[in-house]
Design a protein that fits this description.
14% of the residues lie in helices and 46% in strands. It starts with a helix and ends with a strand. The strands form 2 sheets. Strands 1-2-5 form a 3-stranded antiparallel beta sheet, with no helix packed on it. It is mostly beta strands. The protein is rod-shaped.
Length: 134
């Protein structure tokens, strides 16, 4: 019985000593710096067509891109719908204008070659699809 008491006393002393021994210093993890990201919404430019010519089975014309943003844009994707007399879209032209369009400015492309012009085509409607802030 004395032996059991000594063992229990030793266990209690060991547990007490473990609690008293200070834990080794752990390296403090670096503080994370809060990053704030601002998302800029880019409004695609409006597209104005003029002087369309469908001679020789291809269509070409003047194209003006107007940037409504208060910053310059580039890599503007333009999508043009080829429309039949019935009003149905029968084909598409999709191209990218890489030039920089200044803030609230306009970029004009003269005699742009869109591509082949279908016989049943009667009109062309173009829109800026997307652009990148510069």
């Amino acid at each position: 019985m004395k032996t059991i008491g000594v063992v229990v006393l030793m266990l209690l002393l060991t547990a007490f000593l473990i609690l008293l021994i200070p834990a080794p210093d752990k390296p403090t993890p670096p503080r994370s710096t809060a990053t704030t990201s601002v998302t800029t919404i880019v409004i695609p430019p409006s597209v104005k067509l003029s002087s369309l010519d469908s001679s020789y089975g291809a269509v070409r014309g003047n194209l003006s891109l107007s940037n409504p943003n208060n910053f310059a844009i580039a890599e503007t994707e333009v999508v043009c719908d080829v429309i039949a007399a019935s009003g149905i879209v029968i084909d598409h032209y999709r191209f990218t204008v890489s030039e920089i369009i200044p803030a609230n400015g306009t970029k004009t492309m003269n005699r742009y070659q869109f591509g082949p012009w279908p016989r049943q085509a009667k009109g062309l409607q173009c829109n800026g699809n997307k652009a990148v802030k510069r």
